[in-house]
Design goal:
Blueprint (H helix, E strand, L loop, with lengths): L5 H14 L4 E5 L3 H8 L6 E2 L9 E2 H4 L6 H9 L3 E6 L3 H4 L14 E3 L4 E3 L4 E7 L16 H9 L11 E6 L12 E5 L5 H14 L7 H11 L4 H12 L15 H19 L2 E4 L11 H10 L6 H8 L6 E6 L5 H12 L3 E4 L1 H4 L6 H15 L3 E5 L2 H4 L13 H15 L4 E7 L17 E5 L4 H22 L13 H10 L1 E4 L2 E4 L4 H13 L10 H14 L7 H16 L3 E2 L11 E6 L2 E6 L8 H30 L1
Helix pairs in contact: 7-8, 7-9, 8-10, 15-17, 18-19, 18-20, 19-21, 20-21, 22-23
Length: 645
């Protein structure tokens, strides 16, 4: 299948609109350079006279013999009657009708001395913007009405009017209802890999920097994805104008590592300028503690995920869709996407649903379309949707969203997830599954559903080590001889003292304060601040004592009945939906939860486990299971009510 470049694609769409007899074309672009190239292409305004309806021949070819009286005018003016204006000037550019002179609805072309009406195929480019205001209670688009009306009355395709169009361009906005049936919408596509490579090759070949190899060009292409045609060209020009490398004395564009850094910075700036998505920064020093099942799954799929196109061509299998990860706040969902990006070597685009919301009717839905289109243009990439349940809280059929905006946005996302064929890998997170429609969990939306539970004893030890190692590496970055911890600080037996310190006796029964990964990070930071003036490495006795002291001085997520209740409800919902635990040795499994319907009501059941290796895991399991048994019946009754109500 032949792939068309940007300008060719736009012109083809405009010509399709002309064939469909649409007098108004709406080109959705804010770049005047694109409009100028389209207008100067000599392929837009064409004559369809005496030709089949699906045949379009450029005007100059039809009247190339010069026999037409007004073809002489065309030659004198060098171009078809073409002008640019703004919405406010529109009424002055279109003649409202002059009786029997045949000029009804024609464009005015200003000569050097006087205004002259030419009955020529005409092209009027009109810039529109969102903040366009009406004049004297009249819409700025009302000036188009005489032209559209006369165009529809014209039955002879040999007339110049049938070959004339108004080309609207500018920011996205809602057109009047009366104009929509006569308007053809044209989107500016993003340039593909082939066009970007051609631009780089052409511009470097024309410069004094010499030609780049095909491998070098191909390595640069990914950095340009997601930029418009003009942005790609401007960026290449910028790279060509950089000073030469001071060490090698070669053009900077031949230094691949530095060019990649420049492209990454420019791509981030481009995403910021659009404002709908955000480039997520990757922490190369961050290591994921726990989540052994998720890490193993990622190792098994890290090759096939970014090569979705190749896998499809070789096997016919559709590419990976994404991952939905749900769990307790602070248990590592953000760290998981960081690991995903490092393993796959892909950029991360973060979608904030609140940022997509607009105040104008239809703007939020349009922003969702644009954001997803940008993600496709930057593919392969990771689309990170954090706390998806908050952004779409009104999409589950309840009354939170009376306008229906979030439902429509959620529907757009679901349809796109199902239909998208580009290698855009979705990583969605949620703290709660309530309010999210059931269709969100159907097969084909995500490859896997992972559940994040409170970290076990072994995972807490692992997370402590990872956080300590990151801090130690940071110190070494400033002082190559600096040693933050003595080796004994990393011993499991020593760190276990901190975990056991969280257990206490109450009324003859062991209870505990339960910590998340975020709590562990906080404790490590609090303890480290006490050693800012240290001399030498921290001993294990000093370190464990500082951690215990920090735990006594602050609260953790597992403190208090309210948080424990929310943990239990989150567990129940994840088990009810069959989410796979992201951790090895998880205390709860989906098969541990079951529901029995009896005559006297619903009886949920959570399987009881015994013989835990550590007291911390035993107390954690007993506490959460007790809460689950207390809350499960109410949750099931509410689920049934929502289902049938």
């Amino acid at each position: 299948m032949e792939k068309k470049f940007v300008i060719d694609s736009i012109i083809e769409q405009i010509r399709n609109g002309i064939i469909l007899r649409r007098p108004v074309i709406y080109l959705q672009t804010t770049e005047l350079e694109i409009v100028r190239r389209v207008l100067n292409s000599d392929q837009v305004v064409v004559r369809m006279a005496r030709y089949p309806a699906d045949t379009m021949v450029p005007f100059a070819k039809v009247y190339g013999d010069g026999s037409s009286g007004y073809h002489d005018v065309l030659i004198d003016q060098r171009i078809i009657n073409m002008e640019c204006c703004t919405c406010r000037e529109l009424s002055k550019k279109i003649e409202g009708g002059c009786g029997n002179d045949g000029c009804y609805g024609q464009f005015l072309l200003k000569g050097n001395k006087i205004n002259m009406n030419y009955i020529l195929p005409s092209l009027l480019a009109v810039h529109i913007r969102k903040d366009a205001r009406p004049d004297n209670n009249a819409s700025v688009f009302d000036a188009l009405y005489p032209f559209v009306d006369r165009y529809q009355q014209e039955e002879d395709d040999s007339g110049a009017l049938r070959s004339s169009i108004v080309l609207l361009h500018g920011e996205q906005m809602d057109l009047p209802a009366w104009l929509m049936p006569y308007c053809y919408i044209v989107e500016e596509p993003y340039p593909g890999r082939e066009e970007i490579a051609a631009i780089i090759a052409r511009k470097t070949g024309q410069s004094n920097c010499g030609k780049l190899s095909k491998d070098s060009i191909e390595s640069y292409v990914s950095g340009f994805l997601g930029n418009t045609l003009v942005q790609v060209e401007n960026t290449v020009n910028y790279l060509l104008n950089l000073p030469e490398d001071p060490l090698t004395k070669s053009p900077m564009i031949q230094n691949e590592s530095k060019v990649q850094k420049v492209l990454a910075a420019l791509k981030e700036q481009n995403v910021k300028s659009i404002g709908l998505l955000e480039m997520q920064k990757i922490d190369e020093k961050e290591e994921l503690g726990g989540m052994g099942v998720f890490c193993d799954w990622l190792d098994d799929n890290k090759k096939s995920i970014p090569r979705a196109d190749y896998v499809f061509r070789r096997t016919g299998a559709a590419g990976h869709k994404g991952v939905l990860m749900c769990g307790i706040p602070g248990c590592g969902k953000s760290a998981a996407v960081n690991l995903l990006a490092k393993k796959l070597c892909l950029p991360v685009l973060k979608m904030d649903i609140g940022r997509l919301m607009g105040g104008i009717v239809g703007e939020s839905e349009h922003n969702m379309h644009l954001a997803l289109r940008l993600a496709e243009a930057m593919s392969p990439c990771i689309l990170y949707i954090d706390e998806i349940e908050k952004g779409f809280s009104g999409s589950g059929g309840r009354n939170e969203d009376s306008s229906g905006v979030t439902k429509r946005m959620f529907g757009i996302l679901l349809s796109w997830m199902q239909d998208c064929t580009k290698p855009v890998y979705i990583f969605a997170t949620a703290n709660s599954l309530s309010g999210i429609p059931k269709e969100f969990f159907r097969s084909g939306r995500f490859d896997s559903h992972f559940a994040l539970y409170m970290p076990t004893y072994a995972e807490c030890i692992d997370i402590f080590k990872k956080r300590m190692k990151k801090a130690a590496d940071t110190v070494l970055g400033y002082d190559k001889t600096g040693e933050l911890f003595r080796p004994q600080c990393y011993d499991d037996d020593n760190l276990s003292g901190v975990i056991n310190h969280l257990l206490y006796e109450e009324n003859g029964q062991k209870r505990g304060r339960f910590i998340t990964g975020a709590d562990i990070t906080k404790l490590v930071n609090m303890a480290l601040r006490k050693f800012a003036d240290r001399k030498g490495a921290i001993s294990h006795t000093e370190w464990i004592g500082a951690l215990k002291s920090a735990a006594d001085e602050t609260t953790v997520y597992g403190d208090g009945n309210e948080n424990l209740d929310s943990i239990a409800v989150c567990y129940l919902r994840m088990m009810r939906l069959g989410f796979q635990p992201a951790s090895k040795g998880c205390l709860f499994q989906p098969e541990d939860y079951s529901v029995v319907c009896e005559e006297d009501g619903i009886r949920p059941f959570v399987a009881e486990k015994k013989n835990f290796e550590t007291d911390y895991d035993s107390v954690l399991y007993r506490t959460i299971r007790g809460k689950m048994l207390f809350l499960a019946a109410r949750m099931e009754e509410k689920a049934v009510t929502d289902l049938i109500g």
